[in-house]
Amino acid sequence: MSEHWEASAAQRARVQRFEVWLLGYVQEAKDAGRLDDDERAIRNGDADSPFCSALLQAYGNEAEQHLADFFMFPVLHESIPNMRARVDRVWGFARDVNDLLTEAVKKWGRDYTCQLALQRLRHQLSHPADATECAAPRWMDAERALIRAQYAEPVRSHQIADLKAALTRSSHPFLEPAPDTLAQLICDMKSSRATLNELMDLMERSCDTWVDEQFRPPPQVEDCECTGRMRTAEFFGLTEQADELAQAYARQGPLSAEWVKRLFDLEWPRSARVVGACLSQEDDVLKDFQPEALDWVYGHCVKPLTEAITSLGQLAQELGVDYESGERRSLSGIRFVVAGARLLAQMPSPPPILGLVQTDAERSAARALKLICNVQPLGAAESADLVAELRQFAPEVLLQLLRHCRAQAEEVLEALGWGSAAPLYRFMRERERADPNEYFDVPLLKEHLQCAGQPGELLLDWHKKYKHLKVTVYRINAVRGVEDKKLAGMLGKLSQEHIRVWGMVPLRDTADLRERFDFFKGAGKQASKLFGSERSANVRDAAAAALVQLAHNAGFADVTEMEWSLDATSQSAQDWTWQQDDYAVELSLVRFQPQLQVRKAGKALKSLPPALKKDAGLAPLLAQLDLLKDQSKRYRIALENLMVSGRALAPDQLRELSNLPMARQLLTALYLQTPDGGLGLLDDSLAQLRLLDADGALADAARPVELPLTIAHVHSILATGRLIACQRHAVQSSLVQPFKQAFRECYVLTPAEREARDVSRRFEGRRVKTSVLGAILSARGWRVDGSDFDFVARKRLAPDIAVELSLPDVYQFLTQEEATVLGEISFTRQAEPMALEEAPPLGFSEAMRDLDLVITAGAADSDEHSAEVQHARVALVGALLPSLGLKNVSLEGHHAVIQGKRASYRLHLGTAVIHVIPAGYLCIVPADKASQKAVALPFVDDDQRTSEVLSKLLLLSADDKIKDPSILAQIEGRVAQA
Question: CA–CA separation, 641 vs 558, rounded Å?
Fold first, then answer.
C-alpha cells in the first residue's frame, strides 16, 4: 500500500470538475437561503431534491464517481474549506456544505463509493501520521504551525498534561472525512456483507504499530485506563460505530451469536453499546443475544480484583449506572450477586455506596458493585439458591453487600439470619428516598420493629455504626424515645430535620403538646426574621410537616382536629364586657371578625383610647380579641379545606367546636350535607340541623345530628339538584358565608379535555404576573419546584394524587421575570400520569379554580374571565335581582340588559363593560371600595369585580338620578348617535 493517499489522474480530473460545479451550486443555494433545505430534502429521501437533480443533470451516470472522489480526496481541493480544518469563520456555512455532501454520499453511494471509502479508511488507520494528511490547505499555513505545536510534538514526547485525553480523543486534527464518519457512511449505504466484513476486520485487526511507536504509555497511567496496547481503530473512534455495523449487517440477514460476540470485544473498552442493547432487549436486531451479553459481562466479574473493578466500573458507566439511576437493573441471574459478594470479600476496604463516594477509585468500585449486585427479580427457586450461595460468606461481607444490593436485600438478610427484619429494611430504604416533608408513618414503623425483633435491633445498630441511612435511623431513634442532647440547640437554630423529628418524639403530656404546637406555628415567622425567603419557606414547610406528625403523635386525625381540640381545652368562660368609670367596652363577632365597641358616658368612640390599652383590667379582653382574630383566619382556612377534601365532621367534633364562639358563627353560616345527600344549616348549639327543601326553605323542625356531616361543596350540591335552592335561600335570608360556597365556581371536564385524556390545556399560553402567581399558589397549597428548563407547580390532592402545572418559561426562579406563561395541567397517581377522568372531581374543580383565580387577579395581557367565573356571577346576580327590586333588569346569557329612562344598556357580567344600546361603549370609572360595599354579597370573600358589576347595575337601573356630568354627556351623545 502506498505511503500517501493519492488520486489517480481520472480521479483528480473528476475532483477538479466537481469543485467548479459545486462552487457555483453552493453560491446559488447560499444566495437563495436554501442550503439547509437541500440537505434536509436528501436526508428525507426526496426523489426530486434540488441538489441530487442538479448533480444528475451535470454528470449523468458518473454522478456517483464525481461525488465520491471529491468527498474522499479533500486534500486536493482548496476553494471550499472542509471540516478537517475546523475553521468555519473562513466560510460560515462550511458545516452546511459538509452535511450536504455527507447526505448525498449516503444516497448515491454504491459499490464504487463503498470500496473507495474502505480504501480511504484502510489508509488512515495504517498511516495516521501521513504528512499529506496533516497538510492543511494553503490558507491554513499559519494555523498548521500552531496546530502542530499544540498537538503533534507534545503528544509524541508525552509533554502534555493529560495523557489520557491524548490517547482517547476521537479524531486526528486533519483526517477528514474522519474514520468514524467513513464507518458510518459504509453502514448507511447499501453495502454488501462482504464490504461490512471488511469494515469489521479494520475495526478488529487494524494496524497497531503506529500507536505503539508514537505512544508508549508510562507503566502507570491515571485510572489504569490506558495500560496495554490500544488499537488504532479505538484511537480514532472507529469502534464506536459497532452498533451501526450490527444494524447494517442485520439488513442482509440474521446475525449469529459468534458474530455478535466479536462485536462485544471489538468495541470494548471504548464503548459497550452493543452489549447494552443486548441486555436491555430494546433493539429488535440484538434482543435475542442477551445470554451472550450476560456471559460476556460475567467474564469480567471473575477477573482479578483490580482488573474486575476497573472493567465493571467502566461498563457500569457505559450502561448508565449512577446514583440517580435508582433501581435500574441491567443484569439477570444470581451468579452476579454472588460475584459481588466475592469481590467484596477480597477488598481490604469496601467502598461506600455510590452517593457517598469521595474518590474516583471509590466511585468506580461503587458503580461496579451497584451494577452486578442488583439483578432482575428472582423466582422462588432462584431466591432460595441465592440464599444458599450467600451463606458461605462471612456476616461482615454480607453486611457490606447489603449496602450495595437493594434489589436482592431480602435474600441477603435471609442469609444473615435476619429475615424477620426485611419489612423494616424496606421501610427504611423507602423513607430515605422519600421527600423529607412527607408523612413518616410511625404506626407502620412500630409494627415493623415488633415483627423484626432482635434482628431489627442488630440491623439498626449496624446502620448507625456505618452512618448509613442516617436520616431514617435518626427518626427511628426519635420515635423510640432515644434522647438527643443536641435537639434543643438545633431547634433554636431552626434546623429543618430537627423540627420535623420533634413532631415524632413521644409526648409527655398536654403541656408538651401545647409547647410544640406553638413552636411549630411560630417557626415560619421566626425564620423570616433570621433567613432569606427560600430558607424561610423551607422552615415553614418543615414546620407544617412537623404539625402533621405531631397531630398523629397525639392521636388526632389531622392538624385541624388537633388545633380545635387545643383551642377548646384552653377556652374558658369569659365575660366579653369590661367597665370602668365612664368607659364601657364590649367584644362581639361581626361577619366572622371580632370587634370592640367602646363607649364613654354612653357615647360611642371610634377606637380604644391609648390610656385604656395599658389598663391591666382590660388585658384579658384584649387577649381574647387577638385570639379571635387568629381563630377567624385559621378556622376559615380549615373549614374551606374540609369542604374541598370532603372530610366529615363527627357529632363529637361538633360538640367540641360548640365551645368556640368563632367556630359556632362560621359553621352556622355554611350548608352541611348528610350522608344521604340532605342539605341544611346547623343551629347555634351545632347539635341540631334544619334541612333545606327543593324550594330553598328551611324545615320548621330541626333534627338532632347523629351522623357525620360534610361541608357541602358546590360540586356535590350541584349533583343533588339543590344548587339553585341554596343560592335562593342564601339571598332571601341575607345569609353571609365565610367563603364562597353556594356561589362557588364549579369546574368540570370539557370535551377537549376528555379527548386529550391525560392533559388539560384550558389555561395554556395565558400570561400572568409572577408575583400574583406565586402569592396565590402559595396560599392555596401549591409548591413550585424544578431546575433549569423544567419547572412545575405541584399541589397534593390526596396522599397518592397530585396536580401539576408546567411553567415552560421559568428557568431559574419564579419571579425572575415580571410575567410568565402557564403551561399544561396534568394529574399524577404515585408520580405516574393518570387520566383526567380518574382525578377526584372536587380536587379537579378546586385546582382549576386556583389557576382561574391567578388569571383573574394577575392576567398580564388582558382582563378576561373563564366561563366558570362568568356562570357563577350570572347565578349570583340572578339570585340578587328579586331582593334588589330591579324590575327593569333582565339577564341574557352573560349580560344584564337594563331598561333605563335615559337609555337602554347592556352590562357584561364578566368584565363589567357597559354598552349603550345600540350606540356604543359607555365609560364609567369603578366606584371606590367603600361605595361598592353598599350591596351586601352572600360571602365575605373580597370580590371587587362582582361588587363593581352590582354597583353599575344599581346606577344604570336608576339612570334618571345620575348627576355626574361626564356620564350624562356620554349617555346623551350615544343616544344622539343612535
Answer: 12
pLDDT for the residue numbered 168: 35
Q: What 3-state class would DSSP assign to 830?
A: coil
| pLDDT tens-place string over residues 32-56 | 777 667 767 766 655 567 877 888 8
157 to 144, 215, 658, 929: CA distances (angstroms): 19, 8, 90, 84
**CA torsion through residues 238, 241, 245, 246, sign:** positive
Q: How far apart are the first and last CA of the chain?
A: 98
Q: Which of 297, 308, 305, 363 is nearest to 330 (CA)?
A: 297
* Contact criterion met (CB below 8 Å) for 503 and 515: no
**H or E element, residue 569:** helix 559-570
**Nine-digit cell at 957?**
337601573
| Contact call for residues 76 and 7 (beta carbons, < 8 A) | yes
Angle, helices 619-645 vs 559-570, to 10°: value is: 150
User: Which cell numbers hold the place of 355?
Assistant: 452517593
Q: Using CA atoms, how far apart are residues 563 and 662, in angstroms rounded to an integer?
A: 13
359's torsion region: left (phi>0), alpha (psi -120 to 50) or beta? beta
- The predicted pLDDT at position 307 comes to 92
- Cis check for the bond before 269: say yes or no (omega within 30 of 0): yes
For residue 960, the one-letter residue type is D
C-alpha cell at 725: 335552592
Grouping H, G, I as helix, E, B as strand and the rest as coil, residue 44 is coil
For residue 605, give the C-alpha cell.
Answer: 368612640
Report CA-CA distances (Å) from 878 to 143, 229, 472, 748, 873. 82, 88, 58, 22, 8
Residue 802 CB burial class (10 angstroms; 0-12, 13-18, ≥19): buried
Q: What is the spatial distance between Cα 328 and Cα 322, in angstroms, rounded to a whole number?
A: 9
- Is the pLDDT confidence value at 858 over 70? yes
Cis before 154? omega within 30: no
pTM of the model as a whole = 0.67
Q: How far, in whole angstroms, is CA 146 from its chain's centroid? A: 48
Q: DSSP labels for 95-131? A: HHHHHHHHHHHHHH--HHHHHHHHHHHHHHHH-TT-H
Q: Can you read off the three cell numbers belonging to residue 137?
A: 490547505
**Cα–Cα dist 77/787, whole Å:** 48
Sheet containing strand 895-899, strands side by side: 889-892, 895-899, 904-908, 914-917, 920-922
Q: What is the SS3 assignment for 922? A: strand
Residue of 90, 89, 112, 108 lying closest to 100 (CA atoms)? 108
Collapsed DSSP state (helix, strand, coil) of residue 638: helix
- Alpha carbon distance 19, 15 (integer Å): 6
Query: Grid coordinates representing 755?
Result: 379527548
Q: CA-CA distance, 329 to 332, in Å (whole number)?
A: 8
User: What count of other Cβ atoms lies within 10 Å of the Cβ of residue 676?
Assistant: 6
Q: Which residue has the cell 458510518?
A: 184
What confidence tens digit (pLDDT) does each residue in 358-379 have? 777 788 898 999 999 999 999 9
How far, in whole angstroms, is CA 229 from its chain's centroid?
46
Phi, psi for residue 503 in degrees, rounded to 5: -70, -15
Q: What is the 3-state secondary structure (H, E, C) of 397-451?
A: HHHHHHHHCCCCHHHHHHHHCCHHHHHHHHHHHHHHHCCCCCCCCHHHHHHHHHH
Degrees (nearest 5) of the Cα angle 21, 24, 30?
Answer: 135
The SS3 of residue 605 is: strand
Residue in 71, 156, 193, 79 with CA at minimum distance from that of residue 121: 71
Place of cell 426519635: 478
Strand partners, 80: none
Q: Are 648 and 716 in contact (CB under 8 A)?
A: no
Write out pLDDT tens, residues 125-163.
Answer: 777 655 555 443 443 444 445 545 554 444 343 333 333
> Cell numbers of 830, please?
404515585
How far is 48 from 55, CA to CA, in rounded Å? 11
Residues 6+ apart with CB under 8 A from 630: none
